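Continuing the batch. This is chain 6 of the set; chains 1 through 5 are on the previous pages. Same settings as before, nothing changed between runs. Recording input and output for traceability.
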Amino acid sequence: MHNVVVSGGSRGVGLGIVRKLIDAHYRVVAVARGESTELSDLRMQTEASQPGSLMFLPFDLSDIEQIPNLVGRIRRDVGPIYGLVNNAGISFEGMLATMPVTKIEQMVRINMVSPIVLTKCALRSMMSAGSGRVINIASIMAFTGYSGLSVYGATKSSLTGFSRSLAREVGRAGITVNCVAPGFIDTQLTRSLDDDQRERIVRRSALKRLADVDDVANAVEFLLSDKAKNITGTVITVDAGSTA
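Output for chain 6:
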């Protein structure tokens, strides 16, 4: 059974990815600052049906200096890391001219520096095994504009460049590195939009609907599988055709 680490795995897209990977018979380590009720319920269900398939580790990913210890604990308690899904991220909406520098630094730290350092530490396990998968959850904001999300877009754009270069760096070690770029996903975040905002997004999409969490999770599962063994350094966009 392959071990896969999912950061930000307690809710939303991250929780959907955790569910999908458990169903696909991976052993999943979900990392997040706190355990949501939904993740706790899933752990109880999983322990009854697939004992040992889901572990939760509380960790603040802004604590960059402690990431090596986190990965060391995972390797000791669970075993070699086959897959890493860098899903954790934060967003503060607002115009750049008035955004506090502290918020800019926080987004850069959690959305950029943290996944890079987490990947660095996990790669050692993958390189020892001669195989592995790194999947970075980017966003369509990496290649399309949206007013009020310039810093968030910058952090997500960085993940695509990071992934493409890293794919070349570790390919000879049997490791693939890819991005999944969701658009507006039907989650609690988009449910907070008013009807007019949602309708504008739906009208822009080729399929006239929003993608959902399962669509993103399916893309992640595919990239972790043997079916994607020769796919690396690329971005899979999951947005119902909003950027088509």
